[in-house]
Amino acid sequence: MTLGFGVVGTGAIGREHINRITNKLAGGKIVAVTDVNQESAKQTVDQFGLDAVIYPNDKVLIADENVDVVLVTSWGPAHEATVVAAVEAGKYVFCEKPLATTAEGCMRIVEAEMKHGKKLVQVGFMRRYDSGYVQLKQAIEEGFIGEPLIIHAAHRNPTVDPRYTTDMAVVDTLIHEIDVLHWLVNDDYKTVQVVFPKKTKNALEHLRDPQLFIIETKGGIVINVEVFVNCKYGYDIQCEVVGEEGIVKLPEPASISFRKEATLGTKILTDWKYRFMDAYDVEIQDFMDAIVKKGEPQGPDSWDGYIAAVTADACVKAQQTGEKEAITLQERPAFYRETTVCETV
Ligand code: NAP
């Protein structure tokens, strides 16, 4: 069975997913595209030689009977309306983060999906498909380090666009840690506090950088995440889990080591796209395979999108108040069971 994909948003990540579905992965075909910028949609069809219909908007794309899956890669504020319409039409959805820009918007998607009666939506939190995070989760679940007590994490970018603002450190950057860390330790978040260390001279006037997020879970684990988006030296993702019996640490991306000019070294990536390239492939392949074999996606779901939105709101509030802010989630409906470790990595 080949799943027909209709793509809403043919920007950077939209084209990357089109490329992997068309040229790398098995089981999917792009049959329709749309973008508010129709010229971008047309260029994309030409660029990849697609046999796909170019639609003027998401509504008509969703209505196409050849579209089994709606791939939502437009900008964040447009996601909610497309996802709700697709779910109401009974289409599967792969939605890039954010699921919606507000917790209320995520809840509207949750309600639409529960009303439909079957899980249709997966959110693009690809870190759960990164082999390093999968190994960390397996080690924790096997009890290799005993009970996890502390997580030290860091998300560092060499530099960011001048339009990047302090709250974007949460909604664009920390959001991936927000999703992957509660999944890693299978716990819910309780509070967050933000500390601003001395500001780097490399950040623009309007941006507070670096930032330190201190998050407590309901189970008592303390997580600290450094977000430092002008670190200069590279794109660097760190995660170390301290347990009662030992420590596990995210592996560094595979790279040759070199001996040169009296130095023993390893190069560090500079572009986020390459750090999780394999994870994006595994994520989309797993999404397609799960639909075919199990009838519904098995990855991060609408409830995970809701958790991310509520947590992000609390983090932004904590940036503004400097206080410890509560992360208050509604009770998880039985419809949304815990998502498990990715089986295909
Ligand atoms: P982008 O290059 O700006 O692409 C977004 C595209 O969607 C643009 O072509 C934009 O058109 C179009 N668009 C905007 N509103 C639309 C609407 N209502 N209907 C149809 N198309 C619409 O952005 P991107 O980097 O690809 O990001 C897209 C989404 O993916 C964002 O939500 C982003 O957070 C997410 N993302 C996730 C990851 C990840 O690691 N999982 C990585 C990158 C991006 P115009 O250019 O004309 O506005």
TrEMBL record:
Residues 4-125 form the Gfo/Idh/MocA-like oxidoreductase N-terminal domain. Homotetramer. Its EC number is 1.1.1.18, 1.1.1.369. Involved in the oxidation of myo-inositol (MI) and D-chiro-inositol (DCI) to 2-keto-myo-inositol (2KMI or 2-inosose) and 1-keto-D-chiro-inositol (1KDCI), respectively. Residues 137-323 form the Gfo/Idh/MocA-like oxidoreductase C-terminal domain. Pfam families: GFO_IDH_MocA (PF01408), GFO_IDH_MocA_C (PF02894). Pathway: Polyol metabolism; myo-inositol degradation into acetyl-CoA; acetyl-CoA from myo-inositol: step 1/7. One of its GO terms (biological process) is inositol catabolic process. This is Inositol 2-dehydrogenase/D-chiro-inositol 3-dehydrogenase. HAMAP family: IolG. It comes from Neobacillus vireti LMG 21834. It catalyses: 1D-chiro-inositol + NAD(+) = scyllo-inosine + NADH + H(+); myo-inositol + NAD(+) = scyllo-inosose + NADH + H(+). Belongs to the Gfo/Idh/MocA family. It comes from the Bacteria. PANTHER family: INOSITOL 2-DEHYDROGENASE, PTHR43593. GO terms for molecular function: inositol 2-dehydrogenase (NAD+) activity; nucleotide binding. SUPFAM superfamilies: Glyceraldehyde-3-phosphate dehydrogenase-like, C-terminal domain, NAD(P)-binding Rossmann-fold domains. Keywords: NAD, Oxidoreductase.
